[in-house]
Records
---
Amino acid sequence: MLARVKSLPLSPESLQKPTESLDGTVVSSSTFSDTPRASGTCSPSTTTCAWTHTSFSAQPEQSVGNLACAQKKQYKVKKKTFWGIQVVEALVWKNWELGKEAIRHLTLKNISMKIQKLKYRLPTTKFFFTVYPQSIFLSPGMSFTLPVFFRPLEEKEYVDHLSFVMAEGEFSIELRACLPSHQLTCLSTLQMPLCAVSDTTETWFSLYNVGDLPTFFTWEVPNPFHTLPSTGLLEPGSVCQIKLVFQPHVALIYDVQGICWYGEAGDQKTTIQIQAVAKCPQIMVYVNRKEDEEIDPVSLQKVVDFGPAPVGYSMKKCIQLFNPSLVNAPFRIETHRILYADDRVFSSPTTKGVVKAGDELWLPLLFRPQTVGLKSIDYFTIFPPGNTSEVTLKITGSCTGPALSLSSYCVDFNWINLGECAMKSLMIRNDSDCPGFFMFEIDNQASVFSVEPQSGVLASKEHKMLTITFQPTHTIICYRRVACLIHHQEPLFLDIIGTCHSDTNKPAILRPRHLKWYRTHMARGMILFAPDILGTMLREKKFSRDEDGALMLRQEASGNLPPAKYPSIPPLTEYFLDGTSDTVIFPPTVTIEPLIVNFGKCSSDVAPDPVPLCLTNHTRGTITVTWTHKATGPFRVEPDTIDIPPLKNTAARLCFQPQFPNKIYVTELEAFAFYRVLRSFNNIEEDCTVFPSWCLKLRAMGHTYKEENEYSFPRYTLDVPKLFPAVSSKCTSYRTLLLFNSGSLMLSFEFLPSSSPEITVRPTSGYLLPGAYQIFLLSIIPKGFTWKQLELALQFNFCPKYIKEVILMSREEPLDIQMESGKVLYFKPTYIGGSSTMPYKIRNTTRLTLTFEWKYTFHSSKVVSVQPSKGTILPNETMIHTWTFTPNATMNYLIRAVLWVWDSGAPCGPPFPSPPPSSVTSTTLPSCMAIPSSIPSSTVASSSLPSKVPLSLAAPPRLPPSNVPPPVPSNSRLPLSNDTSSNIPPSILLPSGLPPSETSHYVLKLIGEGIKASITAKEKELDFGNVLVDSEQRKEMILLNDGNCTLHYRLFVEQTLSGPCDPDVMKTDPIILKLEKMEGMLCARSQETICLTACPTRRLQYTWTIKCCLLTRKDGECSKREVICKATMKGVYPTLSILDACGMGSAGGITRQHLWRLFSLETLNSYLERDPTSWELTYRVPTRHSTSRIPSVYTPLLLDFNFGAAPIGTEPSVVFLLLKNSGVVPLNWSFLFPSDQQIDLEFWAERTEFDFTELHQMRVQDNDIFSIIPKSGNLQPGQEQTVEFIYRHIFAGTDKLPVLLKVSNGREILLNFVGVTVKAGEKYVHFTSVKHRFTPVTIGTSLPPRQIFELYNGGSVPVLYDIQLDVLWNVQNKNFQHPIFQCLNPHGDIQPGKTTQVFWIFSPIEAKTYAVDVPIHILGWNSAIIRFEGVGYDRFIMGNTAPFHSITTTDQTPAVTRLIVPGQVAFLSQSRISLGNIPVCSRSSRLIFLNNASEKDPIIFSWDLEASSIIENVILKVSPMMGMAAPGENIPCVVTMDASQHACFYSLDLVCKVYLQKALSQYEIELQAWEKEKARQEVEFTITENNLETLPPIQKQQPYTPPVTWNLRNPKTGQIWLYPEEPKPCLLYLGLSARAHNMDDFLRNFFSQSPRFFFCPPLEEKKSEGESIVVEDEPDQNTFSNQEKQIVRDILTIIIRGLLEDRKFHEDVQRGLVEAIPYFSQFWSEDSVRMQNQKDSSGHASVSPSYEGEEEEAHQGEDKEDETGEEESWDKGKIFESLDGSLSPTNSIQKRGLGPVLSEMNSILQEENSRIEKETISRLPSFLNLRQSILENIIQNIMIEASRGEVVLTTKPRVIALPPQQPLLLASGSSPELKPRRLSRQNRGFGPLQVPLLQINSSGANLVS
């Protein structure tokens, strides 16, 4: 097989080092994937391939499919610049041909900033030339293209130069033409992937054409290897991807060599060494065998999802390993992630094992999460032996922590009196499944507020009631924000407020609204001013209030910027930046130093020295600080109440007085600072200026242990995580530690200063009661990308022996992404406007959740796109990005894309940007209220805070370096350089809002090629054939892609309907052709089968045009739609039709035509041809569906099956119908009686009361009055079946029965079976309908046709009918005395079982519909009123649509007998003869055959024409009239009809009685025997008396009285012979129909057909055997009197005598006799007739022959004249006798002079008389009849001989060579005209007769083909 490979260019780099640059697959170590199709890349350093366990495939990175041409990077043309003109160094011609002109274009580009002028000189040789030199002017940036032509004359290399001249100098371009050569290269060694026995692996390698000529190649590889393609043509500079298929049958190691032959003679070769190994193991992995397994939709990896798991707890899941092979399968498990050991959350205790043959093994997997809110992902790969079918499992799980919440975050005690205590309750709940440990950071013993319990644990979904107690010690405002620390959760904050009053001191009451205002004022910088100052400024209208009631500056109210709001601060940020450290969120109002005082070891006897404290007031008002410690406590501050002036500080002392030895003293002292004006509520004028107090906390500790005494041993539990959560650069990571005092003694704790300074711990010291929990919060800003070990020293009970070393690991996570698919991505060749996708795999190797975004130039965005283009990638997650390549031109593409990644939680700018100055200071404020410069501006609040906050919050905002451009918006694209060696600066294409230092980027090269392609269908036309409506039919359409790229297509279907249906309905019909897929992908050089399903909904012709367009983009845009296939289908219904009908029994006397009307068969056929309605398809097949005896009817169609009438007790009326499946699909038919549709009910469920209709139907069905044999059947297309309908005359009266004709999946018609049974001797006339419509008649016709109305006698006695004509006269009177309706035979009789025809004439005078109700009386019986209707039309208006040309008869029965009833041994070749339109007085003949179907019995037939004698002046003959037919013989019968002189419709029935000769002979024998016996019995008797006596003497006889003792008897009754029954004949009906037109109408409308008919005027003949004739009365002939005859004789005598005396006349006669006979001799034929009559009168009579007595018929009119005796003989010869007698003797001289003339005239007249006599004879009717009979006999003989096989009419005519003609010698007296006439007779011949149709027209020789 030879394949044509498209040429694609190669880069020069690929040609320098083929061994290093060629793409291939070299396998030394393998990794495997169980995806359906995986691809891998190989390089010299890392050789990796991938394949599957069913159809292994190792493909190069290009992945081009089956016969593929991979595009290589097109080398960059070397260009030079000469004085600002950029041009290539040389123009090279390759692949040129002798004698042909090759053209290359030289482009010059002006890259300078000025206009350049150039001139050039032509090449020196004649082989290179260009256009005539001219000056070239190039503006800056413009280009000029110069065509250079090359015309070689020899096969050699050509070199020349093209010189250009500029003002600066001259430069030249080399012109070179090279000779081509053959050279192919490929890999030297190819290692095939491991393959299972009897399986297949595929490997792709590249075959390069590094030569200059198209090269044919042929591969030869041994079994079991073969290549695709094995042969092909490789264009120069292109590469072909060769697929090597390995299909081993034995587990062996293969090392074979493949040879590629190429070159002109095929003698050059290149080899490749192929190595492969075949193995046989297999392991199947099931994650969930019983249910559907979760599969990753992108990577198609099996997913093990642990779901949410509580932090610190382990979850376990097991997967199943199954070995279906016959050998043991060892395996090992490897993880893809290289992590710190303590960072693993997924693990498996089993890392390797063996699965026994046919056995299964459960592999446990563990999940222990460490970081709350983090979703973990890991990949476990299970390797079977030999790594043949690896399975990678994607394991996921998420970590959930506690979810503690408070029912309220503010507890308001309002105010209480001094010395009182107040308590309130608060609910804390855990909404998570993870237990939650909590601790309120408050010292219940030293604070005015207490929370019980202060710490504890909440189980899953548990809640607890907290009790908050308020017991103030001073009359002040108390407010404290208590932090609730939660293990593995951010802290919660609880605001507790209360006010203490006394009788003398009543400070302002603090409420929750004041806290809201306070926070707003804090954000606006107003808390630094005392309430009285703010109230004064509010009164002075320097402040205003916002919608919440808070204060704001007037400038803010009128400015564009909204006033500052209190920001949403993260809880961890608020906790660590609470003002106790150097970094704060808002400027503090009061500070205390130090915060922690440790007295160390003290003596209980001597109090230690007090520790000085420094209190600083940062506000503009006087602040009062009140300490709330208890008087009995060991720690106290002196003084306990102190006032601090504005912006001043003051000193205090902390005193420690231990009370007991060997005891630990730890407490948290509490002080409340507030503006002094708040001591009394009278000082507050505005409620919004009430500020809460500030709580100052001082932690003091000490102990009285002595060195010689042992410290108390701490018993505790410490939950310490090993790693800090991952954060990016300069971000803070938080952790919580849980400490539980499991001992019975209180213990103290303190983090020693030797701990790592990078970690911030809160709290650093404290105490823990027995059974209590302590939670520590840790924060760190890691630095460096290496893991760093951090140590914390936790000392318990102030003892150096009780120090716990806590080790934590932390590092700054790098923004690393591993590009597992390499840095170059190759796309498959893609069609223009289409798209191809390639997966690209990246992996997050960090512990951060990274946000990524792809960036590329705007121009490249029209060609490539990626999904997802941005998003997040979880730690250790491998994500597959789908790149889409959409070329828009036929070219090679090189595009570079940049992947930017950054930490998802990193802030996009400064965390707290400085607010505008107006929010802090204003020019309207007094100078005394200005904010001091010592407060940094960065401490002012911002409007929003990030979730993760760097530690250095007080630093000024970081500005980008001056050399860094501003960030680029995310929706913009910057151009990239095309130079692959250049590096992209990190600042280019940055995501918006991020500095370069916080991002990382990776460059990806995208290489693709755009080509042209199309999709075609293998079969251009599909034919579904005939399909049943509402049923489905399927066909397959094969799509072909002959191109080199994968095509994405979309199919469209256009539907066209044709047939009898409304066009508007057809337009709205939905498309019923359903395609298995409307869109898809078709790989290169492949085909796809699409199933087409069609379900027609109508009986129409469906045509579908299937168009295909290639998808240009993913949004659904399509290219131009092209027709690829056309499909056709015809929706059909099962079509049943009635072909023929025949009656027997009592219905035997009904003609076929009448039977068709009785059974409404024509209407039934029309109904069966229509489409069924939706109601009829309620039950598609016969179904018992009714519970009533009268089932429901779902069809609107109702027809009568009228069996006619017959006397009671007669034989049943039997009707045979011939059913035929006239459709194209099989059908099932059924006749369903009401009982067949009724559901069989239980006896108790049936009704016992029935109406008259139900009782009548029950009687009919129970007595089988109507029966059908068979009642159902199946018919294949074209198949016929006879059904017998029987009506039994059992009961007198009318019998009716509704019978449903059901065609499965088709029509459903209700048939009303009707039959009449007449009592014996009763009259009955059956009227088929009460309405009769005449055939339309044109107005203005003089002789309207006669029309027929039939009456049928269904009784057993003859009846007389009388039609009342009064109504007809009324219609005539209304229409100007014109007889519209005429009845020709209004009276008559009807014989039993016979039909009579009543003739009507309908003669309209207007174009309208006439109607009349005519009573028809049946003497001695009932009467009926029949409505007769007729339509008159104007043929001049209707034109061709007029019904004049139709034969318009009601006989629609078939022309050929199709039905054969039981016992029928003979049949006619035609059951109906239609003569069509005939003229009046014409004769028509037809030839039919009587066939004897019996094989052994002869038959005797006779024709009965009595039924046809009802039409006047019609002669009907059948020849032969009777005869015998041997077995199998065909008897020809000629039917001849002579039409009458009246225009009429003919509908005649001829009956042929057929007897079996055997039965007839037996009947004659029995009849003779019976007659003999009868004669014997008439004269024979027996006397049984014994004592006989002699007779007495004769005397007067007395009345005869036989003796009683005499026993005179006839033969016994049992011995009486019955009269033999005459055999019943088989009646064959022959229908004859025609329409006779008067001559004027016939010639006007059918003039072309007139030569076909023989016209015979009506003659009065005797009716002979075989003829049926009724001759009308001939009209009286006109007679002339003797006087009239004498006048005529005298006039003629005078005229002739004048002529004889005229000399001039005589001379003219003589001169005319000498002349030749003129051409127009017929002008004087009358004189010839006179002379002939004269000769006849002189005794020269001519005797004409007679033909079979027909001469008498010709002179029949003359005989009538002789009989009258009143007229004389009218002889023309007597005129000449009188003329001769009148000549006087004086004229004798003239007579002698005329003698010769008269003699010559007599001879001429004799000849002319002879000719005229022949013409006269030829015009005689007898002669015409004779000629017609001869012609008919000739044709009859020919047809009979043809039917017997004696003559073959279809044989080709034979050509007989005649001998050469001899010249004829003419006699002396012969005429020269005879010679050509004889020659013509000799050469006259007849061709073959072709008479395919057995019919003879009246013209004799006109046969219809």
Note: Residues 1788-1819 form the longest helix (32 residues).
---
Amino acid sequence: MADIPQQSLKNWTGSQVSNWLRSIGIKEQYIERLYEEEVDGQILLALDEDFLKTKICMKSGPAHLIIQKRDELRNKFQEKKKPTYANKNDFEEKRSRKSVQRLPGESEVTPAQTAERDQDVFEGRQAALACVLISKEDCQPRPFDQEGIDFLYVKHSILQPESGAFNLISPCHEFKSFALAATLDRTRLQAKFAKEVLKFATGCMNIRSNGTIHFGVMDSKEDGGYVHGEIIGIPVANKDIYVDALDYIERSFSSDKEHIRQCVRPPRFIEVMDRQSTEKRYVVEVDIVPSISIVKGKLYAVRLPNFKESTNKVEFEKETILRRVGSKTEPVSDKDLSDFYQRVKDRDAQREEAEKNHFLIAPEMCQDLGRKLTMLMTSGKKFIEKENWFILVTNKFKPDDLSSIDWLLNMNIFCVFDFDPDSKISGLCSRYLEHHAANMHFLQSYRISAGTTIKEFTNHLRLFDQTSWIFCNGRTDFKGNETSCDEMTWIKTKMTLLRESVSLICKEVLPKGTFQVIFLLTSPVEKPLLHTFYEFFTDMEGHEDIICICESEKTFQKWQSFAEGSCGKEAVDKYSVVGMKMSHINATLQHIQPVKVCVTKHLPVFVKGICLLETQVEEQMYSLEILTVNHCDETSIDFINEEKENIEHQFYRGGRVTWLNFWLAENKYVEVIKRDAYHDTSKLLNDALKYNADQTPVNIINIYHHPGSGGSTVARQVLWNNRKSLRCAVVKPSYPVSVVAQHAVELREYEEKDPQRCLPVLLLIEDSDKEYLDDLRNELEVAINVKQIQYGTFCFILLSCRRSHDPEKKCKESPLQNVSVTHKLSDQEKRKFAGKRQELEERYEPQFILTFVLMSEGFNEDYVHQFVKNLLKGIDHHSIVTRLISYVALLNTYVQNSFISQSHCEALLALTFHLERFRRHGFERSLSDQAKLVFLHLRDDKTHIESIRIIHPLVAKEILQQLLGPQQTQSSLAMELLHENVLFEHRFGRDEYHTFLRQLFIRRSRISKGDKYDSFFSPLMEHVRETEKNPPKAIELLIEAFQRFHNDPFFAQQLARLHYTYEKFEEAKHWAETAAKQLPNNSYILDTKGQVYRKWFQAKCKTIENVRKTAQNTADAVETALKALECFQESERAADAEMENDNSLGFFAEVEVGCSLLKLISSLQVFANRSNGHAECMKYLLTDYIPEEVKDAWAPFHDRLKKLHNTMQDTLERISEDLSYFQTDIDADEEEAPEGPEGKISHPLTWLSKKSSEYGLYFSEAYSTGLLQHGKSIPTNLTPFQKRMVIYHLGGGNITSILSKLIDQRDAAQRLERILSLYPSNPLKAKFGQRDIVNYIAAHISLNCLSPQNQKVAPLKDLQALCCQFPSDKRKCLPSALFLLTLLFWPEDDDSEHEKETKYEIVQSAVEQLEKGYRTKMKDIPPRKRRLYTHFFLGSGNGLDKFVHKKKFERITKWFSVSEKRMKWFSGEAWKMPEIATMLKRVSGWTEDGVVYLEGPKKRKFHILPLYVPSVPHSNENITFYLGFTFKGLVACNILVKK
């Protein structure tokens, strides 16, 4: 019962209730039943005996015992209830300072179990603060009578109770809260302080005992709410008041005054640290040391001072002899006085003896610090674990210590919390950077913005790629505003940031048990460092993984006094290594590191030698896993002998091949078979390496493989065996091509003198799509061209390893580029596999090397069938384990890379484990023989969470078929899986499980992802529709999934699509509306709703296709079309509001339906038959006129149809505006239809020009045909609408069309002049709309670019004046208007400072709105899919001539293909050309946490977007760059770090 959680009963979890039940002796079967029924603390409080007997089937005895003990416990808690505090803050303060203790059984609970991340962090922190013992932490007093001690107390910690004399040397203690006295005026305060000190001092001196009186510590007599000895502290405004108060000695003692002065030490002021407040408080302490040489033979009488309020002055009490009696100071009574005098000699003798003994005490036994340090760092193992992360917290290093940090250089350091502002110049950081790459961060860098996932955040800060160096208190060499501050300012400004950083790392980024925190205290400790310890202690739920290393014992004391307040003296001693020199630490730790201290890695070089690969260079190429010539050589022989069996076994059972497998094979420990595909790939590789004048610099070799056929092994084997002659690397997943290409180029040229003479680089890319591969190839080719490497030089081989369902077909398509790895073995392979199998079967049972056995049979369908048949023989079809096998088989068959967490399996099998250490064995024991054979255990590299899948996808598929047999269908199994509550609701790993389950029902097949075909629904749904031929069952399954996922609207969306596929439009409408009702703001769902009506409209048009069309028989179709338009407009509005998607489907669909509707309207007899039918139709659509024939039948539609021309024009405007943000169509020849919802437009620019022309022609045909002929003058009687339509035809209807004239220059200048002639001659007086002003200005800027001396171009001042007509509220400006403001108001070199600042303000406010508009409309789409288009660059000219359009660079880059050109610009390689440097102007700035700032504006920092994000240094640096103008704002191009 002692270790039950001491927290509110109702907050107990199910596990805690189980632990308590065990402690009172309840049988395990009942405990398990209560746990299954989810009985937690709150439910425990509500239980009664009746429930336990009827529902849990418990006997009366244990039921009665539970209720009785529960009531006792409840009463106990109520008695122990916390005292009431004056206010809530006091309570919060007291709650949070209590020691954090781990609850029994809590080890199984991790943050991953909570669905919502933010909630989890909050709850975790609250739990850490709330799960506490009722008692407060004990603490040690300041070391007695020692000079120069740096010590502090933690508020609310508890000193040992007041004490009497013990051995005369150990001081007795007296506490005074002094809370009221400390607020008194000087006279009253001094009298009160002197009275207490002198009373205590006299008592101690008379009995010859050392003593300390503490002011600011609670005495038991004082107010409730605090406990005896609790440290509160008092405010001390002026320390002199307390020091001078001891001048009362001269007035209080009639004789021996100098004795008193010698024995009473001056007051000491010990700071009290409060984690909740920044107010400074102290404990004031006075030590009394009655040395025998001073007090021998004396008794001291004192007249205590007392401030009399009645006389308003200090008076002295009568002279009294005082003594310490127990923990009190009392006067010696008259009857005891003579005895007290007589015993003076005895007391003197005791004191003399005590002093002599004290000096003779033997020194402490010396600890074996080396062993202690070793044990702490290795957790008791032989070596420091390779996988373990270390977090370092440190302050200023001494120069001598910096020469002894080799041990740190070999550690897997995740991040460093550095409190030395000079660290980058002269401290640990500067020394570390000589050997490793690191990213410079500040505490605010760890603020995670809403909506960012942890994966996105860690990728952004490169946390798993390079050490993160966090400057916690400023950085002196940094140009941005990041200065160091004093302790109190730090607590006010940085404390919260520190708390957030630590919490994020401990709760979200690194799982508990995968990291250790080392506090390396190399200089005096300040408060911020202490706060850091407290935050780690709280968030790590204890101190087991926190180590403190400190050379100076004096420095350690302050640390110790604080740390003991959190985790107790024993823990601090156990986890601290004090007094060991840094050089000794260095030597000791190097000895236990698994890798040799100075591991040298080698790469091959062009002239056939080798070169050294520097570690920091390797770390800077973080997107590559580089394979060195001497890879794995650093592995110890002991480790090899210990682990080789395990490594080989895991591989042959189906685990992924490791480099160690190949190392073992090369060193003849084991053998790894070379398949034919290995030789084929090697031949292709060797052929490619032969010199050929027409050789392309980048070659791609594709290995297409059946899932699970060993393709990855073949690819890695090729890399391994070429590592001594080529530079080899594996491309890590999820890095952008630009970064990979940059690193690949660096790897090629590393340590080579001449870029023309380098070894080729062999890059392995696994499971990527064609688009990624092509982009990477383009990036690399651009880089090669820029470096002007001679044509025919072979630079890169991309070895792509991809899943495919028909590898042989791919191989036939391109035999010189593709290799296939299939499940079928050749005769030669069969011989090799048979020999190896025989050898393995001598050592292992066949079932333990199952995947190898199946492979040696070539995964022959009959063999797999027979193998599975034998495996399943005698299996218990009704057992829960068999059910688990069928569920895993279903998921593995249909969902790539799926698994079920071991924790889920245990929940399904109803297993509970109380010891984590034996968990795996318990789980294995619970499986049937069949399950043991087919389940493969996986472990996540980052989180170390264990999970299971079936050893091979083909085996999974076969198991699924045979387990189901002819009676049961896959749809019925899927239905059972949906109904499996235990799996669905299990907390741990729930997100992954739900993701796989959703994919099973929703994710469509994609050939590009290695699937067999592209599907309209998920493969399981297609199976039910096509193979089971049961569409109603598919619908039923989706409805069930919809309900299981709490009426998930995305399932409803699929149901709508499924229904309209079968032309069940009423049902489709119902499901689309159901989805839209739940997610009324999801543009994709609203688009699906629109598609329902669009398909319905098409079906209705089809039925009246061949009949004579009248208003009556078309009314129904027109209504449906208008409903579709309404839905698409709703979808557009939602798309505008969505931040995470860029969905323009609604706009395109609206125009498509609009055109179809116009076609239907014009085919009506009333508009089609007459000679002036078209004019009649226009009259109807553009004016109030309504023909009689349509008046009644279309009565509900007239208003909407008359708005059609406006809404379509707005939509076309909007599409064209959106397109001005990005570069034009990417790859036309994609491998398959682009992924995404129906109605996706693949070539938007072509589509736009076609539809605009269709629309423009439609509304202007009647009067504009003659006007558009070249040279004709423009009639003066045209209406604004007609003029606008003519401008539309000329290509001046929007900024996209106007600026495109700069690219397609045929007759462009004349056309622009003609467009400008349609505008009024004095535009300032004309009442222009915003769009007209934009188009007018854009036409002038474009005309100036095409024809710089043209007289028709207006001066810059006139255009700036015209801009004044834009709305003053920038939120109401069009993006194109804001874009023009950034151009026209960019400061000139000869502007005055005031003019520059005014212009910067205009530009900055425009840029702010542009960025907001961009986020609302276009969002941050991966650059690979849509690239921001830079229309102009800042050049070296003046006025309008300072804008250089990209077209100007054409002659420099004209020999490139379009895609190469694009990649060249986007990657930033083009900037290095001298011709461009002469045209453009470089500007200066700096970077801070990956953000670029412009130097110039004085009032506020000007943040500039980088065009090419990877070019921004991860560190904070001073830079220069070129400036580009885009619709997202200003962009920085070609960023270079100032040397």
Note: Residues 82-135, 913-921, 1225-1237, 1262-1266 have pLDDT under 50 and may be disordered.
